[in-house]
Amino acid sequence: MVLNFKSVLIVKELVLIAEENSPPLFWKLGRIASLYDGNDAINRVAIVKTATGELISSIHKLRKLLINPTEPPILPEQPIADS
Hints:
Layout: E1 14-17, E2 28-37, E3 43-50, E4 53-58, E5 62-64
Antiparallel strand pairs: 1-2, 1-5, 2-3, 3-4
């Protein structure tokens, strides 16, 4: 199976920022602000907005945050329906 790396991460997606010396429960939460391609047109670097500011990170340190994979994601432009 061939993975299409361009479709792995998208802008406005929630991610966890992996840190080498801390367990996953202590990783920072962020939202991808923009993605940058390498010379081979594959996403290599992302600017991620966190609670404390923005940081530049390799996409290899970012992990998708799956909130509820059975429902379509709610994008910031869509209003949240009252239940």
